[in-house]
């Protein structure tokens, strides 16, 4: 079947290709007038946008929260067409992918599609609707956890929404900026991740070491006061009211260190964590200064590229107007 599709360009498939692929150049192979194709493409984009927005209705009923039966029924019914829309969307892109990629080997062709960014997003969007099974069948607790996991994939639909928004010129410019500067932004992202991990390790080590030194100092003082050995004092001192406790706003594990370093590097600083040791305080100052410099780089790159794209678009529009005149 796929071989016949590959060798015999079908008009319907060509038309579908023009409609469903957002970045398809309509001037290359339009079966109808470009204006008609644009209307169909816009209508298709609205359907996908509608499906994405409706799919977020699940978020209005958090897991474990009581809600009215009417709301649950409405949300469940609304998810049914959403599921089929995403299945149809994936299928239409699959059967028209040979127009986008000139790979002659069909196995490699569709393998490339299945491994593509769009395909992965589309598949995750479909999997996010599997929780509809619980509406039509009795599900035990274990299976319900699995369905809840797939339901959490619904956030991936934000990516699908962003993809289809490229049909609008402002969003297309923004996406082109990120695509053109992807290498620079990726390098900066990797640098930020490395900095976060390294600084988090230093802060975590400094905070834990600081707390351990306080504990050891208290135990030694307790042992000398009560004429006890360190090991015995270590056990008895645990019941003392003055025994040093880890403050609630202190970094006590690596996960907290990652979180604290991230919000510090991005200069957000919610204030839910604060450094206790002198070493950690110095590191926080360094992280903040590094964050100001690092975050400013992608901001400048994106802003400069965005202005360049706008200038190019204005130039192209001017050239088209001059040709028409």
UniProtKB/TrEMBL annotation:
Keywords: Ion channel, Ion transport, Membrane, Potassium, Potassium channel, Potassium transport, Transmembrane, Transmembrane helix, Transport. Residues 44-309 form the Ion transport domain. GO terms for molecular function: voltage-gated potassium channel activity. One of its GO terms (cellular component) is voltage-gated potassium channel complex. It comes from Mycoplasmopsis citelli. This is Voltage-gated potassium channel. The chain crosses the membrane at residues 42-61, 73-95, 115-137, 157-178, 185-204, 282-307. The keyword Transport applies. PANTHER family: POTASSIUM VOLTAGE-GATED CHANNEL PROTEIN SHAB, VOLTAGE-GATED POTASSIUM CHANNEL. It is found in: Membrane. The keyword Transport applies.
């Amino acid at each position: 079947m796929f071989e016949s599709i590959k060798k015999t360009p079908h008009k319907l498939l060509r038309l579908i290709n023009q409609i469903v692929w957002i970045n398809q150049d309509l001037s290359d192979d339009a079966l109808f007038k470009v204006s008609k194709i644009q209307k169909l493409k816009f209508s298709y984009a609205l359907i996908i946008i509608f499906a994405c927005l409706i799919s977020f209705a699940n978020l209005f009923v958090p897991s474990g929260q009581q809600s009215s039966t009417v709301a649950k029924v409405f949300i469940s019914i609304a998810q049914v067409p959403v599921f089929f829309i995403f299945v149809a969307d994936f299928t239409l892109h699959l059967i028209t992918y040979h127009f986008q990629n000139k790979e002659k080997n069909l196995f490699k062709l569709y393998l490339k599609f299945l491994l593509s960014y769009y395909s992965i997003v589309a598949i995750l969007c479909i999997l996010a609707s599997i929780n509809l099974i619980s509406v039509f069948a009795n599900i035990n607790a274990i299976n319900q956890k699995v369905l809840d996991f797939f339901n959490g994939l619904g956030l991936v639909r934000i990516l699908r929404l962003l993809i289809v928004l490229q049909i609008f010129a402002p969003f297309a410019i923004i996406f082109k900026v990120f695509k053109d500067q992807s290498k620079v932004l990726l390098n900066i992202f990797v640098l930020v991740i490395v900095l976060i991990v390294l600084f988090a390790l230093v802060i975590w080590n400094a905070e834990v070491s600081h707390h351990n030194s306080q504990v050891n100092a208290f135990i030694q003082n307790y042992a000398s006061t009560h004429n006890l050995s360190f090991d015995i004092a270590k056990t008895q001192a645990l019941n003392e009211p003055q025994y040093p406790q880890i403050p609630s706003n202190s970094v006590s594990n690596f996960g907290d260190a990652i979180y604290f370093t991230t919000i510090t590097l991005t200069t957000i600083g919610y204030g839910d964590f604060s450094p206790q040791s002198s070493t950690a305080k110095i590191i926080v100052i360094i992280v903040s200064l590094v964050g100001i410099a690092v975050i400013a780089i992608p901001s400048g790159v994106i802003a400069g590229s965005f202005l360049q794209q706008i200038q190019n678009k204005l130039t192209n529009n001017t050239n088209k107007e001059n040709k028409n005149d």
